[in-house]
Amino acid sequence: MIRVTVWDENIQNENEKMKAVYPQGIRTVLAEALKNNPELDVRVAHAQMPAFGLPDDVLEETDVLIWWAHKTHDTLPDLLAEKIKQQVLRGMGFIPLHSAHLSKPFLLLMGTSGTLKYRYVDYERIWTTCPMHPIAKDVPEVFELEIEEAYGEYFDIPKPDDVVFTSWFEGGSVFRGGCTWTRGMGKVFYFHVGHDTYPTFYNKNIQKIIENAVFWTAPQMGKRSLLCEEEPAWVRP
Ligand code: ZN
After folding, report:
1. Residues contacting residue 4 through CB under 8 Å, at least 6 positions apart
2. Under a CB-based contact definition with an 8 Å cutoff, are residues 28 and 16 in contact?
3. Gap between the Cα atoms of 56 and 53, Å rounded
4. pLDDT of residue 226
5. What is the pLDDT averaged over residues 150-174?
6. Domain coordinates of the chain in residue numbers?
7. Whole-number pLDDT of residue 53
8. Residue 143 near residue 126 (C-beta atoms within 8 A)
9. What kind of fold does domain 2-112+178-224 have according to CATH?
10. Are the C-beta atoms of 18 and 195 separated by less than 8 Å?
């Protein structure tokens, strides 16, 4: 079983439009979709729970952390952001979504500003630009979102290992919208979709991509120690 924690800010009650689309929060919609896969053990957590929903034991028991954040990046304790980074270096998968390009854990892992261009309302086509990647399995070559926030270049990220998806927007932007990196023993997949008030996370292709990303980012052999350890000398047979 892959243990997945889906985290968000729990801000749907502060925004009528968002509440109309995600009455129980984005985390709930994502978790319900992932729970259809019997190989996944899914839990939810949010920023208004004690310890931001991520006390040490929950982080330790998480194989893959999905992170949707928009409004409250600055309130996340630096220590928690550092703990998430350390978990990734030990092998935890990390899937930051949408505005998480400015979240502390993502920026710690990337080392860049994470800045980009944006325009709130647009029509989007998502192109699969690395069809051989496991995250693209069973995803169409191209599909559409009738309404989504446009993100545009330049997106200040380190050079990705793979740009699995590239977005085109009717307003004229293109964007490296689905990118992978490895950090330490861990894998990161950033996926740009999911503005607060648009129904993107109900889209079956989007759900498939996130499910694929869970399997791809999951640690294949458990989390590793990061300690420097003295090794005994080899003995020649
Ligand atoms: Zn947004």
Report:
1. 31, 34, 40, 41, 42, 43, 62, 63, 64, 65, 66, 214
2. no
3. 10
4. 87
5. 98
6. 2-112+178-224
7. 98
8. yes
9. Rossmann fold (3.40.50)
10. no
